[in-house]
Amino acid sequence: MTNPRLEKMARRQMNKETPAIREEREKLIPLGNTLVPVPEYTFLIELGESIGRPPEEIWEGDGYLGDEKTINMKIINKRITRFTLYFANLEKFPESICELPYLEQLWLLGVTFPYLPSSIGNLKRLNLLSLSDNGIDTLPDEIGKLDQLRTLVVRDNPISSISKYIWRLNGLEKLTLKRIKVAEIPDDIGRLDNLLYLELSGERITYVPDSITKLEKLKNLILTSSQIKQLPKGMGNLQQLRVLGLACCPIERLPEELSELPDLKLIEVSRGVYVPDSLKDKVRYCP
Question: What does the alpha-carbon distance between residue 145 and residue 215 come to, in Å, rounded to a whole number?
Fold first, then answer.
């Protein structure tokens, strides 16, 4: 049974979260996760399969280090499938995480480290990788070895280029690249033909390639807070598209061909955008 005192401490921890981390946590809570606060609120470790169990049954070694900059620990339960680490300022990524053969979900939220190691490619069962506010400026090519990956979230990181191997992850269903420093999205994005959800935002993104219209399974396309002025040609090919997010983009007009999309329910735009009469019932204006 979960300790009520720990739950109260966890609620106090919520007050120190950044918006990005709070957004990620809100996605976790409905899954039944319990938050396990660490002394001095330095970082928060959550193990999906350790609900209601004392942390010492999961960790051996110096798992809770207060203000230290390293985590030197041996993972006892090699069969855990979900690992989440909050609020840590590390000198090195704990590569013992990459030795978990059954790991399916890895959430690193508000955890800073110099780089993501190439050993991330060892997590052959990983289907979700979420990296938020980590201070990293690149992703290793070995991410391309994660054949089971279905969700990749990278946000609030100063990443200026994306490994070409990411565009080979044909199993991806959700890709979020949010508030990063990438300036150019390559044509190879059109190879991710199983994508259902695509979010691209960043002050340096000025356009998306026409190849994006090859993503015929796409249901949600979010380009919020980018510098895109014009949508790619061929948007009418996205016949399963339901939501198009263009808030805070300098888009001047919506193309008429969007009215040909049978499943389109919502288009979010900023005020001042020209909207054809055929689309006015689908538009929601954002400040």
Answer: 22
Q: Alpha-carbon torsion 28, 17, 49, 51, what sign?
A: negative
Is the pLDDT at 29 greater than 50? The verdict is: no
CA-CA distance, 152 to 169, in Å (whole number)?
10
Q: Are 281 and 265 in contact (CB under 8 A)?
A: no
Q: What length does the chain have? A: 287
- State the Cα–Cα distance between residues 154 and 52, nearest whole angstrom: 30
Domains of the chain from N-terminus onward: 1-182 (3.80.10.10), 184-287 (3.80.10.10)
Tell me the pLDDT tens digit for each residue of 58-114. 443 333 333 434 444 454 456 778 887 776 777 888 888 898 888 899 988 888 889
Can you tell me whether residue 280 is helix, strand or coil?
A: helix
Distances, alpha carbon 98 to alpha carbons 9, 47, 93, 101, 131, in Å: 29, 15, 10, 8, 15
Question: What are the backbone angles phi and psi of residue 67, rounded to the nearest 5°?
Answer: -95, 10
